[in-house]
Design brief:
With 133 residues, the protein is mainly alpha-helical. It is 59% helix and 5% strand. It has a two-stranded antiparallel sheet. Helix 1 packs antiparallel against helix 2 and helix 3 crosses helix 4. It is elongated.
């Protein structure tokens, strides 16, 4: 959640469409705490809002969701650690996958346009339809 908060703050300092990726990743990172709250039967909106508020205060970057109770808890006190190397590799893999999917989409779109398929600006075939003169 601390990374999501940092990305959200960075997005606020950027104008235009350049802020969209920051906001999208920030929103995606909130899925894990949201899922934990839901699985514990907690109030998702209230607890997630409280967690966001907690992370806006300096020095509260270790707060998260207690996976058994669905409430806010200091992860240091619970003994929950998240290795930095694992987190960085996960983010890199997710970004590379997203970029790969976008490249594939560009290639497929370009192939359709080059072959006269969808989006190439050619009229639809009219086989079997009567000619209007």
């Amino acid at each position: 959640m601390a990374v999501a908060q940092a990305l959200n703050e960075k997005a606020k300092s950027i104008t235009g469409v350049e802020q969209w990726p920051y906001k999208a990743i920030s929103k995606a990172l909130e899925v894990i705490p949201r899922t934990l709250i839901q699985n514990c039967g907690g109030n998702t909106i209230r607890t997630l809002t409280a967690l966001r508020a907690k992370h806006t205060q300096p020095g509260n970057t270790t707060w998260g969701i207690d996976g058994e109770k669905g409430i806010l808890a200091d992860m240091n006190e619970l003994g929950v650690w998240e290795p930095f190397a694992v987190k960085v590799q996960t983010y890199k893999t997710a970004m590379e996958t997203a970029m790969l999917l976008l490249r594939i989409d560009d290639i497929v779109s370009g192939t359709k346009k080059a072959s006269g398929g969808e989006g190439a600006g050619t009229p639809a075939p009219t086989t079997g339809a009567p000619q209007m003169d």
